[in-house]
TrEMBL record:
Catalytic activity line of the entry: L-proline(in) + Na(+)(in) = L-proline(out) + Na(+)(out)
InterPro entries in the record: Na/Glc_symporter_sf, Na/Pro_symporter, Na/solute_symporter, Na/solute_symporter_CS, Sodium:Solute_Symporter
PROSITE patterns from the UniProt entry: NA_SOLUT_SYMP_1, NA_SOLUT_SYMP_2, NA_SOLUT_SYMP_3
Chief location category: membrane
CDD domains, alphabetized: SLC5sbd_PutP (cd11475)
Membrane topology: Multi-pass membrane protein
Role this protein plays: Catalyzes the sodium-dependent uptake of extracellular L-proline.
Protein name, UniProt field: Sodium/proline symporter
Record keywords: Amino-acid transport, Cell inner membrane, Cell membrane, Ion transport, Membrane, Sodium, Sodium transport, Symport, Transmembrane, Transmembrane helix, Transport
Transmembrane parts of this sequence: 7-27, 68-93, 125-144, 164-186, 193-213, 233-250, 270-298, 310-335, 370-388, 400-419, 426-444, 456-479
Gene Ontology terms: cellular component: plasma membrane
Protein backbone atom coordinates (compact mmCIF):
# COMPACT_ATOMS: atom_id res chain seq x y z
CA UNK A 1 0.00 0.00 0.00
CA UNK A 2 1.48 3.34 -1.12
CA UNK A 3 1.08 6.10 1.45
CA UNK A 4 1.60 9.69 0.29
CA UNK A 5 4.47 11.65 1.79
CA UNK A 6 2.05 14.27 3.11
CA UNK A 7 0.45 11.71 5.41
CA UNK A 8 3.79 10.79 6.92
CA UNK A 9 4.70 14.46 7.36
CA UNK A 10 1.49 15.21 9.27
CA UNK A 11 1.90 12.15 11.47
CA UNK A 12 5.56 12.94 12.15
CA UNK A 13 4.64 16.48 13.24
CA UNK A 14 1.94 15.08 15.52
CA UNK A 15 4.28 12.53 17.14
CA UNK A 16 7.00 15.12 17.71
CA UNK A 17 4.48 17.56 19.21
CA UNK A 18 3.25 14.99 21.71
CA UNK A 19 6.77 14.06 22.77
CA UNK A 20 7.76 17.74 23.02
CA UNK A 21 4.81 18.38 25.35
CA UNK A 22 5.94 15.44 27.46
CA UNK A 23 9.42 16.89 27.92
CA UNK A 24 7.98 20.36 28.58
CA UNK A 25 5.87 18.88 31.38
CA UNK A 26 8.91 17.01 32.73
CA UNK A 27 10.74 20.28 33.38
CA UNK A 28 7.65 22.18 34.55
CA UNK A 29 6.06 19.71 36.97
CA UNK A 30 6.84 19.33 40.66
CA UNK A 31 9.19 16.40 41.24
CA UNK A 32 6.98 14.70 43.81
CA UNK A 33 4.08 12.25 43.91
CA UNK A 34 1.35 14.88 43.74
CA UNK A 35 3.14 16.58 40.86
CA UNK A 36 3.70 13.41 38.82
CA UNK A 37 0.35 11.74 39.50
CA UNK A 38 -2.00 14.75 39.87
CA UNK A 39 -0.28 17.73 38.25
CA UNK A 40 -0.05 19.53 41.59
CA UNK A 41 -3.86 20.03 41.57
CA UNK A 42 -3.41 23.05 39.32
CA UNK A 43 -5.30 22.31 36.08
CA UNK A 44 -7.31 25.15 34.55
CA UNK A 45 -10.94 24.53 33.55
CA UNK A 46 -10.27 24.27 29.79
CA UNK A 47 -7.48 21.73 30.19
CA UNK A 48 -9.55 19.83 32.76
CA UNK A 49 -12.59 19.67 30.46
CA UNK A 50 -10.83 18.67 27.23
CA UNK A 51 -8.52 16.31 29.08
CA UNK A 52 -11.51 14.55 30.65
CA UNK A 53 -13.31 14.45 27.29
CA UNK A 54 -10.39 13.25 25.20
CA UNK A 55 -9.38 10.57 27.69
CA UNK A 56 -13.02 9.47 27.88
CA UNK A 57 -13.83 9.17 24.18
CA UNK A 58 -10.79 7.19 22.96
CA UNK A 59 -10.73 5.40 19.61
CA UNK A 60 -14.35 4.40 19.87
CA UNK A 61 -15.42 8.00 19.12
CA UNK A 62 -13.82 7.93 15.68
CA UNK A 63 -14.01 4.19 15.01
CA UNK A 64 -16.59 2.44 17.20
CA UNK A 65 -19.46 4.95 17.22
CA UNK A 66 -19.35 5.87 13.49
CA UNK A 67 -19.13 2.15 12.79
CA UNK A 68 -22.19 1.46 14.92
CA UNK A 69 -24.14 4.18 13.09
CA UNK A 70 -22.98 2.78 9.75
CA UNK A 71 -24.01 -0.76 10.65
CA UNK A 72 -27.22 -0.14 12.63
CA UNK A 73 -28.45 3.39 11.89
CA UNK A 74 -29.80 5.99 14.29
CA UNK A 75 -30.40 3.43 17.03
CA UNK A 76 -26.81 4.31 17.92
CA UNK A 77 -28.09 7.70 19.10
CA UNK A 78 -29.22 6.07 22.35
CA UNK A 79 -25.59 5.50 23.37
CA UNK A 80 -24.72 9.12 22.63
CA UNK A 81 -27.75 10.36 24.57
CA UNK A 82 -26.99 8.18 27.58
CA UNK A 83 -23.34 9.29 27.60
CA UNK A 84 -24.30 12.96 27.39
CA UNK A 85 -26.70 12.71 30.33
CA UNK A 86 -24.19 10.70 32.36
CA UNK A 87 -21.31 13.11 31.70
CA UNK A 88 -23.41 16.14 32.65
CA UNK A 89 -24.55 14.48 35.88
CA UNK A 90 -20.93 13.59 36.61
CA UNK A 91 -19.87 17.24 36.32
CA UNK A 92 -22.75 18.43 38.51
CA UNK A 93 -22.69 15.76 41.20
CA UNK A 94 -19.19 14.32 41.40
CA UNK A 95 -16.74 17.00 40.19
CA UNK A 96 -17.09 19.67 42.91
CA UNK A 97 -17.51 17.21 45.78
CA UNK A 98 -14.60 15.01 44.77
CA UNK A 99 -12.30 18.01 44.29
CA UNK A 100 -12.97 19.14 47.87
CA UNK A 101 -13.21 15.72 49.51
CA UNK A 102 -9.94 14.32 48.13
CA UNK A 103 -8.09 17.15 49.86
CA UNK A 104 -10.15 16.80 53.04
CA UNK A 105 -9.48 13.04 53.01
CA UNK A 106 -5.78 13.46 53.76
CA UNK A 107 -4.89 14.73 50.28
CA UNK A 108 -5.83 11.54 48.41
CA UNK A 109 -3.90 11.15 45.13
CA UNK A 110 -5.63 8.12 43.58
CA UNK A 111 -9.19 6.81 43.70
CA UNK A 112 -8.18 3.87 45.95
CA UNK A 113 -6.43 6.49 48.11
CA UNK A 114 -9.70 8.39 48.39
CA UNK A 115 -11.76 5.30 49.26
CA UNK A 116 -9.30 4.21 51.95
CA UNK A 117 -8.98 7.70 53.47
CA UNK A 118 -12.70 8.51 53.18
CA UNK A 119 -13.61 5.53 55.38
CA UNK A 120 -10.38 5.40 57.44
CA UNK A 121 -9.92 1.78 56.42
CA UNK A 122 -7.04 0.51 58.54
CA UNK A 123 -7.45 -3.02 57.19
CA UNK A 124 -6.48 -1.81 53.68
CA UNK A 125 -9.18 -4.04 52.16
CA UNK A 126 -10.84 -1.15 50.35
CA UNK A 127 -7.55 0.03 48.92
CA UNK A 128 -6.54 -3.47 47.84
CA UNK A 129 -9.87 -4.39 46.23
CA UNK A 130 -10.20 -1.06 44.39
CA UNK A 131 -6.60 -1.36 43.19
CA UNK A 132 -7.34 -4.84 41.85
CA UNK A 133 -10.38 -3.49 39.97
CA UNK A 134 -8.32 -0.62 38.53
CA UNK A 135 -5.45 -2.86 37.43
CA UNK A 136 -7.61 -5.61 35.90
CA UNK A 137 -10.21 -3.52 34.06
CA UNK A 138 -7.80 -0.80 32.96
CA UNK A 139 -5.39 -3.30 31.47
CA UNK A 140 -8.28 -4.58 29.34
CA UNK A 141 -9.32 -0.99 28.54
CA UNK A 142 -5.77 -0.08 27.49
CA UNK A 143 -5.64 -3.15 25.28
CA UNK A 144 -8.88 -2.02 23.59
CA UNK A 145 -7.31 1.35 22.80
CA UNK A 146 -4.21 -0.32 21.40
CA UNK A 147 -6.42 -2.47 19.14
CA UNK A 148 -7.70 0.77 17.61
CA UNK A 149 -4.12 1.93 17.05
CA UNK A 150 -3.18 -1.35 15.41
CA UNK A 151 -6.20 -1.16 13.10
CA UNK A 152 -5.24 2.37 12.10
CA UNK A 153 -1.72 1.43 11.06
CA UNK A 154 -2.88 -1.71 9.27
CA UNK A 155 -5.80 -0.30 7.27
CA UNK A 156 -4.54 3.21 6.53
CA UNK A 157 -0.76 3.08 6.50
CA UNK A 158 -0.16 -0.37 5.06
CA UNK A 159 1.94 -1.41 8.04
CA UNK A 160 1.50 -4.50 10.15
CA UNK A 161 -1.02 -4.57 12.98
CA UNK A 162 1.65 -5.53 15.51
CA UNK A 163 3.92 -2.65 14.45
CA UNK A 164 0.96 -0.32 14.95
CA UNK A 165 0.60 -1.57 18.52
CA UNK A 166 4.25 -0.94 19.30
CA UNK A 167 4.44 2.50 17.70
CA UNK A 168 1.23 3.69 19.37
CA UNK A 169 2.32 2.40 22.77
CA UNK A 170 5.88 3.68 22.30
CA UNK A 171 4.92 7.32 21.72
CA UNK A 172 2.39 7.31 24.57
CA UNK A 173 4.82 5.69 27.00
CA UNK A 174 7.49 8.26 26.12
CA UNK A 175 5.53 11.37 27.04
CA UNK A 176 3.70 9.72 29.95
CA UNK A 177 6.91 8.32 31.37
CA UNK A 178 8.63 11.70 31.55
CA UNK A 179 5.83 14.23 31.90
CA UNK A 180 3.38 12.36 34.14
CA UNK A 181 -0.10 13.75 34.76
CA UNK A 182 0.72 17.24 33.49
CA UNK A 183 1.96 15.84 30.17
CA UNK A 184 -1.07 13.60 29.89
CA UNK A 185 -3.44 16.51 30.56
CA UNK A 186 -1.71 18.95 28.19
CA UNK A 187 -1.49 16.41 25.38
CA UNK A 188 -5.14 15.53 26.02
CA UNK A 189 -6.05 19.20 25.55
CA UNK A 190 -4.27 19.37 22.19
CA UNK A 191 -5.67 16.00 21.18
CA UNK A 192 -9.19 17.10 22.15
CA UNK A 193 -8.92 20.12 19.84
CA UNK A 194 -7.66 17.92 16.98
CA UNK A 195 -10.47 15.40 17.54
CA UNK A 196 -13.17 18.07 17.49
CA UNK A 197 -11.90 19.64 14.26
CA UNK A 198 -11.75 16.21 12.62
CA UNK A 199 -15.24 15.18 13.76
CA UNK A 200 -16.73 18.36 12.30
CA UNK A 201 -14.63 18.44 9.11
CA UNK A 202 -15.18 14.88 7.85
CA UNK A 203 -19.01 14.81 7.75
CA UNK A 204 -19.15 18.32 6.22
CA UNK A 205 -16.84 17.31 3.37
CA UNK A 206 -18.50 13.90 2.95
CA UNK A 207 -22.01 15.31 2.64
CA UNK A 208 -20.61 17.95 0.30
CA UNK A 209 -19.33 15.19 -1.99
CA UNK A 210 -22.72 13.47 -1.84
CA UNK A 211 -24.56 16.70 -2.63
CA UNK A 212 -26.22 17.77 0.60
CA UNK A 213 -27.29 16.39 3.96
CA UNK A 214 -30.88 15.87 2.77
CA UNK A 215 -29.70 14.05 -0.35
CA UNK A 216 -27.37 11.94 1.73
CA UNK A 217 -30.19 11.02 4.12
CA UNK A 218 -32.40 10.00 1.19
CA UNK A 219 -29.68 7.80 -0.28
CA UNK A 220 -28.96 6.27 3.13
CA UNK A 221 -32.62 5.37 3.59
CA UNK A 222 -32.74 3.74 0.16
CA UNK A 223 -29.63 1.73 0.99
CA UNK A 224 -30.94 0.76 4.44
CA UNK A 225 -34.70 1.24 4.98
CA UNK A 226 -34.20 0.83 8.76
CA UNK A 227 -31.47 3.45 9.06
CA UNK A 228 -33.81 6.02 10.72
CA UNK A 229 -35.66 3.50 12.87
CA UNK A 230 -34.92 4.42 16.48
CA UNK A 231 -35.51 0.83 17.53
CA UNK A 232 -34.27 -1.14 14.48
CA UNK A 233 -34.55 -4.57 16.02
CA UNK A 234 -33.64 -3.35 19.51
CA UNK A 235 -36.08 -3.97 22.34
CA UNK A 236 -37.07 -1.39 24.92
CA UNK A 237 -34.68 -3.06 27.33
CA UNK A 238 -32.03 -2.86 24.64
CA UNK A 239 -32.53 0.90 24.37
CA UNK A 240 -32.30 1.21 28.15
CA UNK A 241 -29.08 -0.81 27.99
CA UNK A 242 -27.62 1.52 25.38
CA UNK A 243 -28.48 4.58 27.46
CA UNK A 244 -27.09 2.86 30.55
CA UNK A 245 -23.60 3.61 29.22
CA UNK A 246 -24.11 6.93 30.99
CA UNK A 247 -23.96 5.23 34.38
CA UNK A 248 -20.36 4.36 33.68
CA UNK A 249 -19.14 7.94 34.04
CA UNK A 250 -19.45 7.93 37.82
CA UNK A 251 -16.89 5.17 38.15
CA UNK A 252 -14.22 5.89 35.52
CA UNK A 253 -10.94 6.65 37.36
CA UNK A 254 -9.23 8.19 34.31
CA UNK A 255 -12.08 10.72 33.98
CA UNK A 256 -12.85 11.62 37.57
CA UNK A 257 -9.16 11.97 38.46
CA UNK A 258 -9.39 15.21 36.42
CA UNK A 259 -11.89 16.49 38.95
CA UNK A 260 -9.36 15.78 41.68
CA UNK A 261 -6.74 17.83 39.83
CA UNK A 262 -8.71 20.94 38.82
CA UNK A 263 -7.28 24.15 40.25
CA UNK A 264 -10.33 25.11 42.32
CA UNK A 265 -13.90 24.00 42.87
CA UNK A 266 -14.88 27.45 41.56
CA UNK A 267 -13.53 26.42 38.13
CA UNK A 268 -15.92 23.48 37.84
CA UNK A 269 -18.86 25.39 36.21
CA UNK A 270 -16.59 26.71 33.45
CA UNK A 271 -15.10 23.25 32.93
CA UNK A 272 -18.64 21.84 32.74
CA UNK A 273 -19.66 24.26 29.98
CA UNK A 274 -16.51 23.60 27.95
CA UNK A 275 -16.57 19.85 28.48
CA UNK A 276 -20.23 19.38 27.60
CA UNK A 277 -20.00 21.62 24.53
CA UNK A 278 -17.01 19.65 23.27
CA UNK A 279 -18.71 16.35 23.94
CA UNK A 280 -22.03 17.15 22.25
CA UNK A 281 -20.34 18.47 19.09
CA UNK A 282 -17.99 15.48 18.95
CA UNK A 283 -20.79 12.92 19.36
CA UNK A 284 -22.93 14.59 16.68
CA UNK A 285 -19.92 14.59 14.35
CA UNK A 286 -19.24 10.91 14.96
CA UNK A 287 -22.84 9.93 14.24
CA UNK A 288 -22.89 12.04 11.07
CA UNK A 289 -19.71 10.35 9.85
CA UNK A 290 -21.48 6.97 10.05
CA UNK A 291 -24.59 8.32 8.33
CA UNK A 292 -22.56 9.94 5.56
CA UNK A 293 -20.72 6.66 5.16
CA UNK A 294 -23.93 4.74 4.40
CA UNK A 295 -24.88 7.26 1.70
CA UNK A 296 -21.40 7.61 0.19
CA UNK A 297 -20.75 3.87 -0.07
CA UNK A 298 -24.19 3.33 -1.62
CA UNK A 299 -23.81 6.20 -4.10
CA UNK A 300 -20.31 5.26 -5.27
CA UNK A 301 -20.88 1.50 -5.29
CA UNK A 302 -17.81 0.87 -3.15
CA UNK A 303 -17.59 -1.65 -0.33
CA UNK A 304 -16.47 -1.50 3.30
CA UNK A 305 -15.52 -4.74 5.03
CA UNK A 306 -15.27 -3.32 8.56
CA UNK A 307 -17.83 -0.66 9.63
CA UNK A 308 -15.41 0.61 12.28
CA UNK A 309 -13.07 1.87 9.54
CA UNK A 310 -15.53 4.30 7.89
CA UNK A 311 -13.67 7.34 9.27
CA UNK A 312 -10.39 5.91 7.94
CA UNK A 313 -12.05 5.30 4.56
CA UNK A 314 -13.14 8.93 4.28
CA UNK A 315 -9.71 10.21 5.25
CA UNK A 316 -8.19 8.24 2.36
CA UNK A 317 -10.65 9.04 -0.45
CA UNK A 318 -11.78 12.63 0.24
CA UNK A 319 -8.73 14.59 1.41
CA UNK A 320 -5.31 15.82 0.36
CA UNK A 321 -2.53 13.70 1.93
CA UNK A 322 -1.57 16.45 4.39
CA UNK A 323 -5.18 16.71 5.62
CA UNK A 324 -5.49 12.92 5.56
CA UNK A 325 -2.46 12.76 7.82
CA UNK A 326 -4.12 15.26 10.16
CA UNK A 327 -7.27 13.09 10.27
CA UNK A 328 -5.23 10.00 11.03
CA UNK A 329 -3.54 12.02 13.75
CA UNK A 330 -7.02 12.74 15.14
CA UNK A 331 -7.63 9.01 15.52
CA UNK A 332 -4.25 8.60 17.15
CA UNK A 333 -5.11 11.55 19.40
CA UNK A 334 -8.29 9.81 20.53
CA UNK A 335 -6.45 6.56 21.11
CA UNK A 336 -3.39 8.01 22.79
CA UNK A 337 -5.27 10.36 25.10
CA UNK A 338 -7.09 7.41 26.60
CA UNK A 339 -4.06 5.11 26.75
CA UNK A 340 -1.93 7.72 28.51
CA UNK A 341 -4.63 8.40 31.11
CA UNK A 342 -5.15 4.70 31.72
CA UNK A 343 -1.44 3.99 32.01
CA UNK A 344 -1.01 6.77 34.53
CA UNK A 345 -3.98 5.66 36.65
CA UNK A 346 -2.79 2.04 36.73
CA UNK A 347 0.82 3.01 37.43
CA UNK A 348 -0.34 5.35 40.22
CA UNK A 349 -2.35 2.53 41.75
CA UNK A 350 0.52 0.07 41.46
CA UNK A 351 2.80 2.61 43.12
CA UNK A 352 0.56 3.89 45.91
CA UNK A 353 -1.66 0.88 46.54
CA UNK A 354 0.71 -2.02 45.93
CA UNK A 355 4.37 -0.96 46.14
CA UNK A 356 4.08 1.57 48.96
CA UNK A 357 1.55 -0.47 50.92
CA UNK A 358 3.24 -3.88 50.74
CA UNK A 359 6.87 -3.39 49.71
CA UNK A 360 8.16 -0.05 51.00
CA UNK A 361 5.92 1.92 53.34
CA UNK A 362 8.64 4.49 53.90
CA UNK A 363 9.28 5.04 50.19
CA UNK A 364 10.45 8.57 49.42
CA UNK A 365 8.64 10.85 46.98
CA UNK A 366 11.34 10.39 44.34
CA UNK A 367 11.29 6.61 44.69
CA UNK A 368 7.51 6.53 44.26
CA UNK A 369 7.81 8.60 41.08
CA UNK A 370 10.46 6.16 39.78
CA UNK A 371 8.24 3.17 40.54
CA UNK A 372 5.38 4.94 38.79
CA UNK A 373 7.47 5.36 35.65
CA UNK A 374 8.54 1.72 35.70
CA UNK A 375 4.90 0.70 36.12
CA UNK A 376 3.92 2.69 33.02
CA UNK A 377 6.27 0.54 30.93
CA UNK A 378 5.14 -2.73 32.55
CA UNK A 379 1.42 -2.09 32.06
CA UNK A 380 1.97 -1.03 28.45
CA UNK A 381 3.77 -4.31 27.70
CA UNK A 382 0.95 -6.40 29.21
CA UNK A 383 -1.65 -4.42 27.23
CA UNK A 384 0.28 -5.02 23.98
CA UNK A 385 0.13 -8.76 24.61
CA UNK A 386 -3.62 -8.65 25.31
CA UNK A 387 -4.21 -6.57 22.16
CA UNK A 388 -2.59 -9.19 19.94
CA UNK A 389 -5.90 -10.22 18.29
CA UNK A 390 -6.54 -7.81 15.43
CA UNK A 391 -10.12 -9.08 15.08
CA UNK A 392 -11.12 -7.69 18.47
CA UNK A 393 -13.99 -5.20 18.41
CA UNK A 394 -12.99 -1.84 19.89
CA UNK A 395 -16.53 -1.08 21.03
CA UNK A 396 -17.01 -4.49 22.64
CA UNK A 397 -13.74 -4.40 24.58
CA UNK A 398 -14.43 -0.87 25.77
CA UNK A 399 -17.98 -1.80 26.78
CA UNK A 400 -16.77 -4.55 29.13
CA UNK A 401 -14.19 -2.36 30.88
CA UNK A 402 -16.61 0.60 31.02
CA UNK A 403 -19.25 -1.58 32.68
CA UNK A 404 -16.74 -3.01 35.13
CA UNK A 405 -15.67 0.40 36.40
CA UNK A 406 -19.18 1.83 36.32
CA UNK A 407 -20.63 -0.99 38.42
CA UNK A 408 -17.71 -1.38 40.84
CA UNK A 409 -16.96 2.30 41.50
CA UNK A 410 -20.00 4.30 40.32
CA UNK A 411 -22.35 3.70 43.29
CA UNK A 412 -19.39 3.89 45.67
CA UNK A 413 -18.33 7.31 44.35
CA UNK A 414 -21.88 8.73 44.34
CA UNK A 415 -22.85 7.50 47.80
CA UNK A 416 -19.50 8.34 49.41
CA UNK A 417 -19.94 11.95 48.27
CA UNK A 418 -23.61 12.35 49.18
CA UNK A 419 -24.49 10.00 52.07
CA UNK A 420 -22.73 10.41 55.42
CA UNK A 421 -24.27 7.20 56.86
CA UNK A 422 -22.30 5.06 54.40
CA UNK A 423 -19.57 2.98 56.01
CA UNK A 424 -16.53 0.91 55.06
CA UNK A 425 -18.41 -2.40 55.03
CA UNK A 426 -21.03 -1.09 52.65
CA UNK A 427 -18.36 0.37 50.35
CA UNK A 428 -16.41 -2.89 50.22
CA UNK A 429 -19.48 -5.08 49.68
CA UNK A 430 -20.88 -2.83 46.96
CA UNK A 431 -17.60 -2.70 45.08
CA UNK A 432 -17.16 -6.49 45.10
CA UNK A 433 -20.76 -7.17 44.10
CA UNK A 434 -20.60 -4.64 41.25
CA UNK A 435 -17.38 -6.00 39.77
CA UNK A 436 -18.37 -9.66 40.11
CA UNK A 437 -21.81 -9.05 38.61
CA UNK A 438 -20.27 -7.60 35.45
CA UNK A 439 -17.75 -10.44 35.14
CA UNK A 440 -20.38 -13.15 35.63
CA UNK A 441 -22.88 -11.38 33.38
CA UNK A 442 -20.39 -11.14 30.51
CA UNK A 443 -18.46 -14.39 30.87
CA UNK A 444 -20.82 -16.68 32.80
CA UNK A 445 -22.51 -18.13 29.71
CA UNK A 446 -26.02 -17.13 30.79
CA UNK A 447 -28.78 -16.43 28.29
CA UNK A 448 -31.89 -14.26 28.34
CA UNK A 449 -34.54 -14.92 25.72
CA UNK A 450 -32.19 -17.13 23.74
CA UNK A 451 -29.33 -14.60 23.50
CA UNK A 452 -26.25 -13.97 25.67
CA UNK A 453 -27.14 -12.08 28.84
CA UNK A 454 -24.87 -9.12 27.98
CA UNK A 455 -26.47 -8.79 24.54
CA UNK A 456 -29.96 -8.72 26.03
CA UNK A 457 -29.16 -6.40 28.96
CA UNK A 458 -25.89 -4.46 29.18
CA UNK A 459 -23.96 -5.70 32.21
CA UNK A 460 -23.65 -2.24 33.74
CA UNK A 461 -27.39 -2.21 34.54
CA UNK A 462 -27.48 -5.24 36.87
CA UNK A 463 -23.98 -4.46 38.12
CA UNK A 464 -24.72 -0.84 39.01
CA UNK A 465 -28.12 -1.64 40.54
CA UNK A 466 -26.87 -4.53 42.69
CA UNK A 467 -23.82 -2.56 43.81
CA UNK A 468 -25.97 0.44 44.79
CA UNK A 469 -28.46 -1.69 46.72
CA UNK A 470 -25.73 -3.74 48.40
CA UNK A 471 -23.86 -0.64 49.54
CA UNK A 472 -26.96 0.84 51.18
CA UNK A 473 -28.20 -2.40 52.76
CA UNK A 474 -24.84 -3.43 54.22
CA UNK A 475 -24.17 0.09 55.51
CA UNK A 476 -27.53 0.14 57.31
CA UNK A 477 -27.09 -3.36 58.74
CA UNK A 478 -23.67 -2.59 60.19
CA UNK A 479 -22.42 0.04 62.61
CA UNK A 480 -22.61 3.69 61.52
CA UNK A 481 -19.33 5.48 60.76
CA UNK A 482 -17.58 7.07 63.76
CA UNK A 483 -18.01 10.76 64.52
CA UNK A 484 -14.64 11.84 63.09
CA UNK A 485 -15.57 10.39 59.67
CA UNK A 486 -18.91 12.19 59.76
CA UNK A 487 -17.08 15.42 60.62
CA UNK A 488 -14.85 14.99 57.57
CA UNK A 489 -18.00 14.66 55.46
CA UNK A 490 -19.38 17.86 57.00
CA UNK A 491 -16.06 19.58 56.25
CA UNK A 492 -16.42 18.57 52.60
CA UNK A 493 -19.93 20.05 52.46
CA UNK A 494 -18.68 23.31 54.00
CA UNK A 495 -15.93 23.44 51.39
CA UNK A 496 -18.54 23.50 48.61
CA UNK A 497 -20.02 26.79 49.86
Amino acid sequence: MQVAAGVWISLAIYFLLMIAIGFYAYFKQQNNVEGYMLGGRDLGPAVTALSAGASDMSGWLLLGLPGYMYASGVVSIWIALGLTIGAFANYLLVAPRLRVYTEVADNAITLPDYFANRFHDKSHLLRIMSAVVVIVFFTVYTAASLVAGGKLFESSLGLSYSLGLWVTAGVVVTYTLFGGFLAVSLTDFVQGVIMLIAMLLVPIVAFGEIGSISEGMAIAQQANPEVFNLKNGVTTMGIISLMAWGFGYFGQPHIIVRFMAIRSVKDVPVATAIGMGWMILSLIGALMVGLAGIAYIAKTGQSLSDPETIFLFFSQVLFHPLIAGFLLAAILAAIMSTISSQLLVVSSSLTRDVYKLFLDREASESRQVLVGRISVIAVALVAIVLAGDSNSSVLKLVSHAWAGFGAAFGPLVILSLTWKRMNRNGALAGMIVGALTVIVWVYGGFEIGGQPANDAIYSILPGFALSFITTIVVSLLTAPPPAYIVEKFNEMERGLK
